[in-house]
Design goal:
With 416 residues, this protein is α/β, with parallel strands linked by helices. It has helices at residues 32-35, 39-42, 55-59, 70-84, 112-122, 149-173, 189-202, 217-228, 248-253, 263-270, 295-302, 308-326, 332-346, 350-353, 356-365, 374-379, 388-412, and strands at 5-9, 50-54, 92-96, 126-128, 179-184, 206-209, 236-239, 256-260, 276-278, 281-283, 286-287, 385-386. It folds into two domains: 49-261, Alpha-Beta Barrel (TIM Barrel); 270-401, no CATH class. Helix 13 runs antiparallel to helix 15. InterPro entries: DNA-guanine_TGase (IPR053537), TGT-like_sf (IPR036511).
Amino acid sequence: MKKVKFFFPDSHDFVDPTFDFVNETNNEFRVIQRDDKYAHELFDSPVYDGILISKAIVEGLSGVKGRYSVAQRQRFFREGVYRFFRLPRSYETIGDCGAFSYVKEVEPPYSVEDVAEFYTNSGFTHGIAMDHIIFDYENNDVKSSKIVGERLKECLRRTELNLENASKFLKISKSEPFNPYGVAHGWNPSSFSESVTKLQKMGYDKIALGGMIPLKTRDILEILAKVSEIRKPTTQLHLLGINRLEHIPQFYSFGVTSFDSTSPLMQGLKDDKFNYHLPEHKYTSIAIPQVDGNNTMRNLIASGAIDQDLAIKLERICLDLVIQFDKGRASKEAVLEALCEYEKLYLKDAHKKTRRMLMDKVLTDKPWTACPCNICKAIGVHVMLKRGAARNRRRGFHNLFNAYNTLQKELAKISD
């Protein structure tokens, strides 16, 4: 059995495997739910051990649409999580309620019965009890707590609500096919520890620790150290939304057996500085925004701030030069000059914010040529281009590949 497992929280992340990177078009006969591929379908080896799906992502909330269309949601419930995602049974699946989606509400929008029904109907192997996030936090170093009065009252209220719901959920789950997780929240290490103690007394041997995404690593380790003082040897801990791969051996020593995170994917999509990851180094992508497909470019053109014809010309020059550079037919300096010229159009104060040095490093090292993942081997330099979902999401998938490989290396450091 693997010591620590990585679950990927899916938000309908897939790509068109037939996308034409030269003409930048999708196959005209493409049927998204039939033809598009998830990350686990694109690689020769796993990039995660399972997936986590939130009820709020699938169904949405009152007044807020989910990521699934009505047709997709119906198909999800008709087919179940494994068939919907074309996921082999060797992968595990976790359902959760999506507490981030309603964190500002006084009460969760679901009942415990609603959540359990969602897990059962979806065919998950594991289900997390309905929770309400506590974001207040103070470590043990504070001399005088600021979490007092109404703030403390709210922390205590949510804690009791979480424990009450966990108790109901555990009773319901006894007649359901999924394995239940309780959820511990807190505003300091002691309150986390107290919640874990109570969940263990209820009968939970799987406990997720939530609300820790904003915390520093030292705070997370402090919580785990405190929890380890009362954790039973059979209790397995899951870290919700935490991705600190370099600390996996320490996490494991405190009883962590799984975690989930979208960070590798989201950094590939949105990070402006280091969004292409390799084990020993992180690189910036090469931004060539689409004149007709990028909101920033469209707004600048509509306002008259930039000339559309010039933008189209520079965009095409940059794209052609990068592709020719990859083939050894253009110089690095020519590519950099063109990229920086294009930057002047869409970046305010581009002379101050230019990414020339970062892009120089990318073009010098050509990291995409050294990466063994299926994405880099299939599309080459296109994985480095910050340009539309077809490339950006593939770069996120590439990051998943490297994160999972890094996890395996960290796990190898753990002695049996």
